[in-house]
Amino acid sequence: MLHGFSHHRPPGHWQYWLASRLRKRGERVLYPGLPFEDEPRYDEWREALHWSLAQLGDDGERIVVCNSIACLLWLRFGSDRQPDEQPVDRLLLVAPPDSARIPEVTSTFAITDVDGAAVRATCRSPIRIVFSDNDFFNPGRGAEAYATALDAEVDLIRGAGHLGPIEGYGPWPSIEGWCLDPSVRLEQNFPPLELP
Length: 196
Known about the structure:
Layout: H1 14-24, H2 42-56, E1 63-67, H3 69-80, E2 90-94, H4 116-120, E3 128-132, H5 142-150, E4 153-157, H6 173-180
Parallel strand pairs: 1-2, 2-3, 3-4
């Protein structure tokens, strides 16, 4: 699992919850603290991604779940993937931000175009994107544009903001379900929030 900007792996976040749930099931889970999460730089996160993928090895299904700015990390990774980096089996991009809306300190992750073919080549199965219709970091139709470029499967969750703890995404049963069965659709935990 690859976290977002200023994440610090808080226990109330769905990624922390998901890592714990999967480990209790006996799954091997890597949930590294990426370097300088408050002042991240693409090259350093890219190196951490390379290391993490190497640690996954080739035995068993390799599933990657990216959150927020880590989605941009993966989209850029598609264009500069190393020959020794094998494709993963499944990829989920959660709440990918629009590059125009990311904090200045994360500007090294910004992308202008997505090389759909290169990113699709990073995964052996169709990529899944889940996003909300009222995400501050992607207020337009940016996530849909990513989905189109990647020919990705889409789960749209209405009224769920940036899909973080503040919006109620700590425990998130459907994301655990997807990790165990790719046919599971990601859905909201409760009725949509009305955010200003």
